[in-house]
Amino acid sequence: MNAQRNIERLADDLRSIIRHGEDLVRDIPRDLNDKMRDTRDQFSRALETAKGTCKRLEHRTMAGARATDEQVHEKPYPFIGAALAAGVLIGLLLGRR
After folding, report:
1. Is the pTM of this model over 0.90?
2. Distance of CA 64 to the CA centre of its chain
3. How crowded is residue 97: how many other Cβ atoms within 10 Å of its Cβ?
4. Distance from chain centroid for Cα 50
5. 28-67 CB burial, b ≥16 within 10 A, e <16
6. Separation CA 89–CA 10 (nearest Å)
């Protein structure tokens, strides 16, 4: 689940960057020279690409969470065994100290 939280944090950060970028593009005046206008347009396109990436990341995260949830509910014993083994291993390692 740590990876899940990291992905969610990444998506939140990406959304924040997109919001700030949109604010920046909106605040740039319209009467610019050609080079600045081209730069603003490129930045706008990059923001749109970032939005698409964020949406895909969210969909993949949700699909992965659903698949994991289904697997755990369908076959809980292997997951219980893995958790038990990890707990025993951690207990042994910590017990050595």
Report:
1. no
2. 12
3. 4
4. 12
5. eeeeeeeeeeeebeeeeeebeeeeeebeeeeeebeeeeee
6. 31
CB–CB of 50/17 below 8 Å? yes
Contact (Cβ atoms closer than 8 angstroms) between residue 36 and residue 25: no
**Total count of domains within the chain:** 1
Termini Cα distance of the chain: 28
pLDDT in tens, 5-30: 777 787 788 888 888 888 877 777 76
Tens of pLDDT, residue by residue over 42-76, are 888 888 888 888 888 888 888 888 888 888 888 88
Question: What's the one-letter identity of residue 59?
Answer: H
Segments forming the whole domain that contains residue 31? 2-95
